[in-house]
Amino acid sequence: MSDGVPGSAVLGTPVVPTGDGRPDGADAPPVVVPRRRRRRLRLWIPLGVIAAYLVAGVIGPLIARYDPIATSVADRLLPPGSRMSDGGLALLGTDQVGRDLLPQIMQGARISLLVGAATLLLAGTVGAALGILCGYLGGAVDATVMRLADIQLAFPSILLAVFVAGVLGSSVTNVVLTLSITTWPIFARVARAQTLATRSRDFANAARTLGAGPWHVVRHCVLPAVAGPLLVIATVQLGFVIVAEASLSFLSLGIPAGTPSWGTTIANGRDYLASAWWIATLPGLALAVFVVCVGVLGDELRDRSDPNLSTR
Amino acid sequence: MVAPPHAPHPLLTVDDLVVSFDGPLGTYRALNGVSFQVGAGETLAILGESGSGKSVTVRAVMALLPRHSATIERGTIRYDGEELSALPVRRTRELSATEMAMVFQDSLTALNPVVRVGQQIAELFRVRQRTSRREAWRRAVAGLERVGIPNAARRAHDYPHQFSGGMRQRVVIAMALALRPRLLIADEPTTALDVTVQAQIMDLLRELREADGMAMILITHDLGVVADVADRVAVMYAGTVVESGPLRTVYDAPAHPYTRGLMASVPAPDRPGERLTPIEGMPPSPLATPAGCPFHPRCPVARAACRTDRPVLRVVATGHEAACHYAEEVMAGVDVRGAA
């Protein structure tokens, strides 16, 4: 009821017809942006930004090639917008060995997004599946898996990363593996709690009294209830995972040197914060904007998928 | 497979059912030897106050007891000659919807909040009868029309929370009746509704029962709700059936002091302003059921035997059973307080 319904008519005060025969106040401009349009913005702005990141990550490095060993001492620590010695424009400045930051950040987006998405997919799938299994079956399965999750939560993730890097070596796959092992208990816990709350609700029982087996109940009653909270968790975790990847890379336990992620670039700029703020700040900004957009998008998607919140 | 109508054996027989729960305070018995029968096409009302075990009984029948905390210690549940209590739960699920179905008390919790109601009913046709998506939807809309939902074709696209309580209960009924079960269990179907809507829902249930010729178990704590619908009543107290028989017989000549107390506590429309006659005391805690007759601490006719001997359900008249040592006196209407 937010888009321009004349309040006077609703409240029952006499409606005085104006010259054009319309009720008084009907053509007064709405003071606030209609909720419907604000909601559209909440969907499309983050979607647009995320799409831009994806395009930059996928196509960017093809256009502006990033070469980790092409250093140029003359161009070191140039501020954003400077001309480089080869005549190119360093839109976002250069780092301490004269590499252009823009291609570096685009290349970093590729790695960070890949690691983030792959980790969430792996940890989310495994975690949700185990969580639903535990919540639904209960008993010994539940106890075993959940204690495993507790052990995992108590185990320092850095130590695990050292272990994985030491045994398997450092690679993108191993970073995804390490981060998935650290993240799955969070998904499992949420999925389990939601399953416990749903599995003996009356509508699940109603489905049973109509002949539904466990698989059907999980698919039609439990999964829709689990999906919303998991989506929210996933958007929060995406930020954490990208930052965690950055910390692992910083400790050289993550992405091998030569493949820049946002984390390695931020770490590089740490020593030059006072003299060349852009090296650490710009990839950090890129990371922050991305995580915020994912968060807003996740919230909006959750709200849209919840019929109890939707009005027509 | 389908038994002929009016088969010699009853449709559902529950015999000496004992169900216990593991609670934080220890194990307690929610059902302590429940027995009743429902014949094909018959409507049985199960009456009793909160905690008397009505819901546990039907949940045991539908195999809905919580797996980890509830145990069926003893007794049998027999549906159409099959002993369900001895078969895996899967068998009960196979019989569900086509043979027996259930209507829950709170229609809001009985419907999946995130699935459109048409979809929830259509699912049933798709999964159980393997119909096409389109055909399932068509039948779902027809089912909604049958229970009197106006504009069913459009309303089928709505979510449960967009319906009023009465309309939602109709949706639940449509869902339960979709595959034309032979036995409908309605667990307090009108408790969450206001009085006028209650009457509509009861009328609807009666019409549908007559149209389909199905049997019905109607659980309620409202004596008035069942008066027009039920053929027989079973009165439960503290986890047992204390009296059962044809509705008119039980209402007119109750053979158990508890039933008589219930009848006496109903306000009479012809004597407005009269003080009600409640049953004194509280129902016993299932953790500390008294020895002997579970009703004796509240019973106006209780005597020495009631404190030690637990009365069993016995025939007191044709088709009329009661679990009271002095059922005949109660039936005869002896002034119990004078006799005590």
Task: Summarize the topology.
The complex is a heterodimer of chains A (about 300) and B (about 350).
Chain A (H helix, E strand, L loop, with lengths): L6 H5 L23 H24 L1 H4 L18 E2 L5 E2 L10 H37 L1 H16 L2 H12 L3 H28 L2 H8 L4 H37 L11 H8 L8 H28 L7
Antiparallel strand pairs in A: 1-2
Helix pairs in contact in A: 2-4, 2-11, 4-5, 4-7, 4-9, 4-10, 4-11, 5-7, 6-7, 7-9, 8-9, 9-10, 9-11, 10-11
Chain B lengths: L11 E12 L2 E13 L4 E5 L6 H8 L8 E10 L2 E2 L5 H7 L4 E4 L3 H4 L6 H13 L3 H14 L5 H4 L9 H13 L5 E5 L7 H18 L2 E6 L2 H5 L4 E6 L2 E7 H6 L4 H8 L39 H5 L5 E4 L2 E3 L4 H6 L3 H4 L1
Parallel strand pairs in B: 3-8, 3-9, 6-7, 7-8
Antiparallel strand pairs in B: 1-2, 1-4, 4-5, 9-10, 10-12, 11-12
Helix pairs in contact in B: 4-5, 5-7, 7-8
Polypeptide structure, described:
The complex is a heterodimer of chains A (about 300) and B (about 350). With about 300 residues, chain A is an all-alpha fold. Chain A has helices at about 5-10, 35-60, 60-65, 100-135, 140-155, 155-170, 170-200, 200-210, 215-250, 260-270, 280-305, and strands at about 80-85, 90. In chain A, strands 1-2 form a two-stranded antiparallel sheet. In chain A, a hairpin with a 5-residue loop joins β1 (about 80-85) and β2. Chain A is elongated, with a radius of gyration of 26 Å. The model of chain A is unreliable at about 1-25 (pLDDT under 50). Chain B is built from 14 helices and twelve strands. Chain B starts with 11 loop residues before the first strand and ends with a helix. In chain B, α4 (about 115-130) crosses α5 (about 135-145), α5 (about 135-145) packs across α7 (about 165-175) and α7 packs parallel to α8. Chain B is globular. In chain B, the strands form two sheets. Chain B has an eight-stranded mixed beta sheet, with helices on both faces. In chain B, strands 2-1-4-5 form a four-stranded antiparallel beta sheet, covered by helices on one side. The interface between A and B is medium-sized, with 24 and 38 residues. Chain A: This is Peptide/nickel transport system permease protein. Chain A: InterPro entries: BP-dependent_transpt_permease, MetI-like, MetI-like_sf.
